[in-house]
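DATA SHEET
Item: assembly model
Revision: 1
Owner: S.N.
Input lines:
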Amino acid sequence: MEKLLIESTKATPLIDFDSDKSTLVLKGQSYPENAFKFYDPVFNWIDSYLATNPQEIHVEVRLSYVNTSSSKCIMMLLESFEKAFQRGVSIQLNWYCDMENESEVECAEEFKEDMTFPFEIIPEAEKE
Amino acid sequence: MFDEKMLLDLQSTLGSRGILISFSGRFSQGIIEELGEAIMEHMKAEDRPRNDIYNVFAIFVEITHNIKKYALSKLGSDFYDQIYSSGIVTIGRNEDGYFICSGNLVEKTDADKLANALDALIPLDKDQLKKCYKEQRKKDLPPGSTGAGLGLIDIARKSSKPLHYSMGDMQDLAFFTLTVMV
């Protein structure tokens, strides 16, 4: 299936989903004017991808800021992964955070609390 | 009149209240992004803790998106233009920390709903707000939703003091103000 690549902007993250490598990357800030509209193609791609019965999925998240409507969309995305995990798909999600930013870590932790698949919160290396 | 004195008076009012950034008028996504970035850069230059920078930015984004979405939802109303142009947001700093203070016109029936929602949130402590946020985030959204109903809860969570609001009577409409401290 085709890759999904959406370049980042100030208010929307990079979406780089590669079905061949089973690697899904979200990176940047997310506070678009209409989060549901922005994430709609992402949800559609994930639905088609999960329908191909992948064996394992690696997810890499580096979201330094997520507004509330994007947070709802991320939750919907994670719920799709959770359902796939319950069906036996192997999932590893790595969420990279600036550990000095309490709110950013809290955001990641609050997603992790609601999921049962392997979900790691990893300190983001200092950027120069 | 638009003269030197008017501008100096305006500048002195902004300065005396500690206002760093203010915008009055129609919010666009572009303006929200630029102002948001400007306040982040300002706070970084002042060496503020990352958490405070994040919270001020997040509150600013939620407030301005709320104002904009509310105005757009009034498309077709007699008051649409008046509501859309009525938004104002100021961000500043005083002895208690950073403040984000906003105002916009709302229809009277919406003013009551908003006041009820805020009255329900204000007495909640941080743990109760977290629970409320997580419950709301799990709810299925009605089709056509433009928001997740999480904005005010998030603002209350990130505020260091209880939210303060007022509803000023403006004949057919109410002028809603919200003050949030970080």
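QC remark: The interface with chain B takes residues 10-11, 31-36, 65, 67-69, 71-72, 75, 98, 100-104, 110, 113-114 of chain A (CB under 8 Å).
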